Amino acid sequence: MKRANLLITAARGGLVLLLLFCLSIGGRGYAGHDSDEEEEQEQEIQEILRQSALRPSERVENPPPFPLQSERVANFIREHLSCKEGNVAVLLLQPGFRHTVLIANLIGEELTKKGVPTIGIVKGERATTDVGLSGTFKFPIIVDTTQNLVLFSIFGVAKGPGFSTGWLTAWSCSGELRYYYNLYQPRLSVDSVVEQVRSSTSLAPALRSALHPEKQNVVLAPHGYRLDSVVQAYPQAQHSAVIPIPETPATPLGWAKLHVSSRGRWLYFAQAGVTHIGGMIYDLVHQILTPLPIDSVFFRKQSVGSDSLFRAFLKKSYLQALIAGGVSYDPCADSILTVAISYAKIQDIKLRERDTVIVIGKTNWTVFYDLSRNAPFQHIPEYDSSSIGRFGFIDNLHLIQRVLICDPPLLIGTIIWKSYPQSVPLPDLYRPDAQLSANPTTDEFYTMARSWAIFDRNTGRCLALGGKIDINKKLLGIGYMFDPLMSSCPDAAIIHEPLTDYVILVPDGISRPIKTYYAPELVHPTKQARYPATPTKLYRILAGARAWPTAVGITAKEYMLVWDLYEPGRPYEDSRNPYIWQRYDRATGKLIGEWFVPRFQDGMRAQSADFDGEGNLYVLYQDYRRSAVYMFNYQQ
User: Fold this and answer.
1) What counts of helices (H) and strands (E) characterise the chain?
2) pLDDT of residue 8
3) What are the distances in angstroms from CA 194 to CA 53, 103, 108, 357?
4) pTM greater than 0.85
5) Residue 568: DSSP 8-state
6) Which helix (H) or strand (E) holds 71?
7) How much is the pLDDT for 15?
8) Exposure of 84 by Cβ count < 10 A (0-12 exposed, 13-18 middle, 19+ buried)?
9) Nearest-CA neighbor of 144 among 83, 80, 97, 89?
10) What stretch of H or E contains 121?
C-alpha cells in the first residue's frame, strides 16, 4: 500500500504540501558483479547523494526521459495549447497514485489562475474507468488509450511498469524543456513550483545534469523462455467455467488483481487507478458487482475538528481512505473478507499568529467485512506496537499483508524491517549516524530482518515473529525489495519469498521445495554486493529474473504456484508466453504436475490469478472493454 502523511499549511505566504512517503518498485530480476557495473553503480550512488543535497524543487528521484528540445513536443503544443510566449505546462499522469491526482489538481488550478496554458496527458485504463475521467481534474486532459502510449512517447516516456509517478513539465512554445518536477517528491511548495513553470527561461543546471533520456526504466528481458518451447513442453490446462463480469460506468473495474473466496462464491477485484483505488466485489450467486464500502462513521471518528472542516478536506481529497491490494478471505467462512485500510485523518490544528497549520496523518487498520451484508463489522489495529516491542522491534517493523487461518484462529502477516529500499532513502545509508541494520548488504540487517509474524486475529497483538529473509537478498543488496506471495487454508498459511527455491508453511515454519524458473544466479548468488542495489540495478534484476511467480495457493493436501515466464527480447511485463501452473504434494514437496495456462482468451489478456479452497485456479482476463474470469479445474 502506498501511504502518506500530509501537512497542509494555510498561510499568507502560499500553500505548502508535505508528503512523507515510502515508494517501492514492485516486480521482478539480473545482477552482474563485474567492475564496469560496480563503477556505474558507484556513479549512480554519487548522483543520488548529490541530488539529496539540492533544494526540493531541484531534486530528481529517478532519471527522467524527457528530450531537451523536440519538434514533436512543439507540434503537440501547437495542436493542443495556445502558446504565444512564455511557457506551457504539460502534466504526465499514470494510474496508481491518487495522491498524484491531488497534487496535480493543486498545481493545475494555480497554473490556470496565473494564465499558464496547462494540459494533462493521462494513461488510459479501461473504457468503464475512463468514463468521466475529465471531471476528476481541474484543467484540460487527454486520455491516452493507444496501445503503445503514443502521446506519452512524444515526451520520451515509453511504455513501462504500470504504476509510475507523475511528472510536471514546462516547455517553451518551440518545444524546449525548461522545467520538470516529480509529483511524488517529499516536499512541495505549490507557489514555488508554479513560479518555476511560469518564469523559467532555461533548464536549471541541476535538472539538466540529472537528465538522461537514454536511461529509461523499460528493460527488455535478456533471457527467458520461447513461446513454442513452453507450449510443446507441457499439457494445456482446460477451463471448466467462464464468468463474465458485468461492468458499467457506475461500477467500473480497472486493471485488477483477483482474489477468490474459499468456496468460490465471491470474487474480489483489487484495483489502483487514477480515480479508483479500492475494491470491487462480485457475487456469483446474485451476479452483482458492487464497490467495497468504507465505514464512513469510523472514518470520521479518526479526525479532530468540525464536521464542516472534515467534509471540506474530504471533498478536496486531502482526506482519503486507501484500500490495499493485499486482501484475504477467512478459509472457514466463505463470506468473511479482511482488508487493510489506511484512513487519512486531521491529526492536529495549530493556531499561529499569521496562519493555521492543519496536520494530516494516518491510521492503519485491518478491517473485517461480511460480504453477505457487504458491510464491515470489525476494525483491529494493523498491529499492536507494544506487543512487538517485546521482541525488540519498536516502530521498526511494518506489516505488508495478512491472511487468516482458523485452526487455530490466527492472523498471519508478512513483515519488513525498516530499511532500504522499502522505507529508508538511499542517502540515509551514507550518513555518519546511519543504522547498519537499514543497509541490506550488512550482517546487522540480516540479523534483524524477519519475514513473517503471527497475530491475535481479534486484537492485532503480535504473538510471535518467525523466519529470516533469504541470504541471497543480502548478497544481491536488495533487502525486502520484492513482496512475498501469500495464501492460506484452514490450518496453515503458505509464503513464497521471490528469488528463492522453496515455500514456507506457517505457523509451523516448515520449508517445502519448489521447481523454479528464475535465473539461477539470482537464487544462489556467489558474491556479496559491494553496494545496496540502486534503482538501475533493481530494474536489471527485475528484467533478468527470467520468470516471476504470480499466484500461490494451499489446501489440506497440496500447494500450488503460477509462474509468469518472460519472453526474450521483450519488456518483462509484456511477455506473450503462457503461464505455468504447478501442483505439489504438501506432505512431501513432490511435484505432482505442470500445465500451461493461456496468456490470452477471446482476445483478452490475463491480468492476475488466484486459487479457491479446493485448489481450482481462477484467472482474470481483460481487454479495454471486457473482463471475464476463467476457472481451471484442479483435477487435470
Assistant:
1) 15, 34
2) 44
3) 22, 12, 9, 22
4) yes
5) T
6) helix 71-80
7) 41
8) exposed
9) 80
10) strand 118-123
